[in-house]
């Protein structure tokens, strides 16, 4: 008889999948499920503006990898962003057309998000968008609408150095974001390198048949640099480190309202880096590579003007006066500002990463070399802290 009572009680109180199970705390974090990985949901719904860019692809991959849902607002052709579909499982990555000056489409893109990452930026002005439109008004609009929508975290990368018009507009963009979203997390990266960057590949790539645009950056075998690159100090940071730091900032509640400078572990003269890249590519000696001061080459300055005039929307080889000015601006570190290491990122050294990045551009790429046949390229010398 007792066994019958226990059995009937169990059956009465059992809950079946058809039962309604109200969520007591209807927050996104309460909906977490899965054990991690691209098919799980970790409670983060992130809208990534500027996801189609260089850094955007890494950030979206990191988000998807840890089970975040990613909203990708895009402009132009949807095929440009379609490959981001693979960063998460089915239904985890959603695309939405938007316009940077249109409040309604932006509101729609961040309506259900608790994290917004603004990676929108451009190194040159176009017919439709000035630096002010993109870096100040656009950033302000995104920050204001994110705050109005109740977004918990707004992440905004800027640029470390100051100087050119683009960098000045980035500075005012920071003020605008801080006014609209005081708790925004701001990153100030130095130059970022990695696959598809605009630093390593702009300086080094020289396969005429693969891409004429990079030949446009150079003067045949010579590399024009401002004051031969000897007065510019760079502290390049690896793109995956910046993406990892952005992920840590998303998760870390202490990051709210902070500014981080995103730089690599070492500082180098630009001239040292350029020479090293060409040594790695085995083009330094045999192919007659040399650097010269671009200030004394009027034909090169004319080329920059032509490049901007011919294709103002996307200058040939991304060669613009603004871009070159940024390339030759020293990365100035700020005292007392936390770095990526404060977010728990172990920084990648250029010595360990760059040889791999430049491998496809080596002279005699398919040559089956003997062990020790070629001398190991000497690493670049570190610069004194300037
Ligand atoms: N790469 C670096 O070395 C570096 C260093 C320091 C800071 N940063 C900053 O980090 C952020 C991301 O850099 P990134 O290298 O990934 O840049 P990127 O490759 O040039 O990508 C920029 C993104 O912004 C979007 N965008 C540009 N103008 C826009 C407009 N008017 N309306 C809507 N979208 C627009 C682009 O969309 P489309 O694809 O549609 O053009 C693209 O998705 C930028 O703010 C940049 O200034 C970069």
From TrEMBL:
GO terms for molecular function: protein-containing complex binding. CDD domains: NDUFA9_like_SDR_a. Residues 47-156 form the NAD-dependent epimerase/dehydratase domain. One of its GO terms (cellular component) is mitochondrion. It comes from the Eukaryota. SUPFAM superfamilies: NAD(P)-binding Rossmann-fold domains (SSF51735). Belongs to the complex I NDUFA9 subunit family. Complex I is composed of 45 different subunits. This a component of the hydrophobic protein fraction. Interacts with BLOC1S1. Interacts with SLC2A4. Interacts with CLOCK. Interacts with RAB5IF. This is NADH dehydrogenase [ubiquinone] 1 alpha subcomplex subunit 9, mitochondrial. It comes from Timema shepardi.
């Amino acid at each position: 008889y007792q066994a019958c009572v226990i059995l009937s009680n169990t059956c009465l109180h059992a809950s079946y999948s058809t039962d309604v199970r109200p969520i007591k705390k209807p927050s996104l974090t309460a909906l977490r499920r899965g054990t991690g990985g691209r098919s799980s949901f970790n409670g983060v719904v992130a809208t990534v503006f500027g996801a189609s860019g260089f850094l955007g692809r890494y950030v979206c991959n990191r988000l998807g990898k840890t089970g975040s849902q990613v909203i990708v607002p895009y402009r132009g052709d949807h095929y440009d962003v379609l490959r981001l579909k693979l960063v998460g499982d089915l239904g985890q990555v959603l695309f939405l057309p938007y316009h940077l000056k249109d409040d309604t489409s932006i509101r729609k893109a961040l309506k259900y998000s608790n994290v917004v990452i603004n990676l929108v930026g451009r190194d040159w002005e176009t017919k439709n968008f000035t630096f002010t439109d993109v870096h100040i008004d656009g950033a302000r609009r995104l920050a204001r609408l994110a705050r109005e929508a109740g977004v918990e975290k707004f992440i905004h990368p800027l640029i470390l150095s100051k100087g050119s018009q683009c960098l000045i507009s980035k500075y005012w963009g920071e003020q605008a974001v801080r006014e609209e979203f005081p708790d925004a997390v701001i990153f100030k990266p130095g130059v970022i390198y990695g696959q598809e960057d605009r630093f390593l590949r702009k300086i080094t790539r020289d396969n005429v048949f693969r891409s004429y645009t990079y030949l446009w950056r150079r003067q045949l075998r010579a590399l024009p640099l401002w004051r031969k690159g000897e007065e510019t100090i760079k502290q390049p940071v690896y793109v995956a480190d910046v993406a990892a730091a952005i992920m840590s900032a998303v998760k870390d509640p202490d990051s709210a309202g902070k500014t981080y400078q995103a730089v690599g572990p070492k500082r180098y003269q630009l001239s040292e880096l350029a020479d090293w890249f060409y040594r790695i590519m085995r083009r330094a000696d045999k192919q007659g590579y040399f650097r010269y001061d671009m200030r004394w080459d009027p034909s090169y300055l004319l080329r920059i003007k032509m490049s901007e005039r011919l294709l103002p929307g996307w200058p040939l080889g991304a060669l613009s006066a603004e871009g070159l000015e940024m390339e030759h601006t020293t990365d100035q570190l700020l005292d007392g500002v936390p770095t990526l290491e404060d977010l728990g990122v172990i920084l990648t050294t250029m010595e360990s990463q760059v040889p791999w990045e430049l491998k496809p551009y080596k002279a005699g790429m398919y040559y089956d070399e003997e062990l020790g046949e070629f001398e190991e390229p000497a690493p670049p010398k570190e610069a004194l802290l300037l």
